[in-house]
Amino acid sequence: MLELVKFPNPILREVIPEFDFSNPSEDPKQLEKDMLELMYSMEGIGLAATQVGKRVRMFVIGNAAEPEKGEAFFNPQVIANTKDLDDLEEGCLSFPGIYVKIKRPKAIKARWQNSAGEWQESEFSGYDCKCFLHELDHLEGITYQDRVSTLKWALAVKKTKKRAINVRTK
Ligand SMILES: [Zn+2]
Q1: Choosing a second label site near 94 at 20 to 30 A (CA), which of 61, 106, 137, 138?
Q2: Which residues are catalytic?
Q3: CA dihedral defined by 47, 50, 52, 55, rounded to 10 degrees?
Q4: How far is CA 30 from the centre of its chain?
Q5: Where are the alpha helices (DSSP H) in 25-149?
Q6: 89-110: b or e for each residue (b if 16 or more CB lie within 10 Å)?
Q7: DSSP E strand boundaries for 27-167
Q8: How far is the CA of 145 from the centre of ligand 1 (A)?
């Protein structure tokens, strides 16, 4: 059973080395299945292996409408990105309840290996793009908190606390 790792667990600061399909430290298909299951149970749309305490260069991205279409991205790389940025709201299962707008490229072209070790290539835009980049950051030891000013983060945290108090007094 996988367990969610929350900030400031130091594994969230590690840069994770390439996953070696010829000498795997984990069964890639099992990990994909277990992580998707946990992610859906937490109503997340993306989850990186470090967020479940695994030093595996991989994340999963879900599909709320068609859960079976959720998939794993091993050794992900961004090979091109737009100069134009989107400023969309992000949340993170390792920072429960904190939502903040983060500027990231509008679209990217990326490559990665699926859980069978086959190389794939595709373009991503909108929330899929932002999710891909958010999860890739996790494998580099970067969190979305690092992508905003201290002030913007403090305001987001304050909003979370207010929301929590409102829930408690209901
Ligand atoms: Zn996250």
Answers
A1: 106
A2: 135
A3: 130
A4: 18
A5: 28-41, 126-139
A6: ebbbbbbeebebebebbbbbeb
A7: 46-48, 58-61, 71-81, 85-92, 95-105, 107-113, 119-125
A8: 10
Give the Å distance between the CA of 46 and the centre of ligand 1.
7
pLDDT tens track for 107-146: 999 999 999 999 999 999 999 999 999 999 999 999 999 9
- Can you list the alpha helix ranges (DSSP code H) found in 5-148? 28-41, 126-139
State the greatest distance between any 2 C-alpha atoms of the chain, in Å, as a whole number.
54
Output the six-digit token pair for 10.
């130091």
Cα–Cα distance measured from residue 45 to residue 64, given in angstroms and rounded to the nearest whole number:
7
Residue-wise pLDDT for 27-43, tens only, equals: 999 999 999 999 999 99
Is the distance from CB of 79 to CB of 111 less than 8 angstroms? yes
pTM value is 0.94
Question: How many CB atoms lie under 10 A from the CB of residue 169?
Answer: 6
72 Cα to the center of ligand 1, angstroms = 15
> Alpha-carbon distance 39 to 17, whole Å?
23
